[in-house]
Amino acid sequence: MEAEAEAPPPNLPLPPAFIDFLHDNGLNPSIYASASSLPRYIRLKPGTTSETQIAEIESELGCELEKVDWLPGFFAAPPHIHIAGSVAYKRGKIYGMDVASGAAVMALDVSPGDHVLDLCAAPGAKLCMLLDLLGSSGSLTGVDVARHRLAACRTMLLKYGLGDRCRLFVADGTSFSFLPVREEMDMKTITTNVEECTDALKEWSPKRSWKERKSARRSTNGSASELVRTTAQVELLYYGRHSGMVGRSKRDFFIERGDSDASAFGYDRVLVDAECTHDGSFKHIQKFEHWGWDTLQRRVLNAERSDSVTELQLQLLTNGFKLLKVGGSLIYSTCSLTVAQNEDVLKKFLSMNPAAAELVEIEVAKNWPCKSGQIPKTLRFDPLASQTSGLFIAKITKISQT
Ligand SMILES: C[S@@+](CC[C@H](N)C(=O)[O-])C[C@H]1O[C@@H](n2cnc3c(N)ncnc32)[C@H](O)[C@@H]1O
């Protein structure tokens, strides 16, 4: 990919450091030319999509909605509409979610009954969509290293009434090792006899324990501690009634598992929506106009940070893949458009797992308005090609044990 222009597109307040970053990464700034006029996408809560209900939501939002014909449940609203203040949002009828993010979830091809892992789950738009697709069977495990972000995700789950089959762990996704609770699981992987379990988990209650309040205080006082969590520091932040946790001992889950256990009893689907520089999200970059462009330089574009982000991405992808069952599929996605954070990470991962991992076509993507990535079978959404935020998506299946 060659950068064809170095100047910022007209009418876009992109700082020189960002233009340099795009140029260094072979990205053409003109892909952002229409970014400020992109539609604001919303996803309707399943069950609220009749014509009458849509008309009601339009009146609550104060605008007309246009159906996105290539992804069910998504609608485009005018760019400057404020979703969070609307009655429809407060009543839990709609989600604010870019349609490219919805595509990443659809690409995972979740079926009811699947056990799904979302390794970078917060703030949770994709997690909620995954739960809507799961319906009333299977389970979803959400992991995120940032406690305050995962707590916001829990609030969202409860608001939309989606928590029943979900459990949330504050943990480092590069070392997280808990498998889903499967009925057919060999008892050697579950240490406690449920009947005799004296410290069994009761139903989750919103009343926070002393331990949880203490942990929350610690994470507010020093967010750096969130970034150095180890497996031993895994915290169970939430579990629903049918998540498989109620009635079991915490000790059952806080044990390390080997690769063969994961290959047999691991997750059917894994989403690794990895931490990245967010350069594909124009809305995210625009926030720095308010915080100060020098903050963007320091926090996002700094070369050292970019290197550590790609290392983190590879580790998240590697661990997500380790927790996948043989025959299962994984989506790797980022909202960066740089080759370093997408194709390069993927190439490295595939070269490290030649016998176990296979990059596969995303079958549902046939009519999607996206481009191919530099590696065939991968997809790239960007504001120019897709009228969406930027997103890279790759799908991998596990064909044998790692
Ligand atoms: C792109 S965001 C995920 C967005 C989310 N999937 C959604 O749809 O709302 C990346 C997330 O990765 C989390 N993260 C960063 N490092 C992590 C790590 N080592 N383990 C787990 N999560 C991590 C960040 O806290 C952030 O919430």
Automatic annotation (TrEMBL):
Record domain SAM-dependent MTase RsmB/NOP-type: where? 30-399
InterPro entries registered for this protein in UniProt:
MeTrfase_RsmB-F_NOP2_cat (IPR049560), MeTrfase_RsmB-F_NOP2_dom (IPR001678), RCMT (IPR023267), RCMT_subfamily_9 (IPR023269), SAM-dependent_MTases_sf (IPR029063)
BP terms from Gene Ontology? RNA methylation
Query: Which terms are listed as keywords in the entry?
Result: Methyltransferase, RNA-binding, S-adenosyl-L-methionine, Transferase
Q: Which Gene3D superfamilies does this entry report, sorted A to Z? A: Vaccinia Virus protein VP39 (3.40.50.150)
A GO MF annotation of the entry reads: RNA binding
Against CDD domains, the record matches this protein to: AdoMet_MTases
Query: Which one Pfam family would you cite for this protein?
Result: Methyltr_RsmB-F
Q: Where is the active site?
A: 335 (nucleophile)
Q: Which residues bind S-adenosyl-L-methionine per the record?
A: 144, 172, 273
* Keyword tRNA-binding in annotation: no
Please state which protein family the record places this protein in.
Belongs to the class I-like SAM-binding methyltransferase superfamily. RsmB/NOP family.
Q: Which PANTHER family match?
A: NOP2 YEAST -RELATED NOL1/NOP2/FMU SUN DOMAIN-CONTAINING, SAM-DEPENDENT MTASE RSMB_NOP-TYPE DOMAIN-CONTAINING PROTEIN
Q: What is this protein called?
A: SAM-dependent MTase RsmB/NOP-type domain-containing protein
Q: Which organism is it from?
A: Acorus calamus
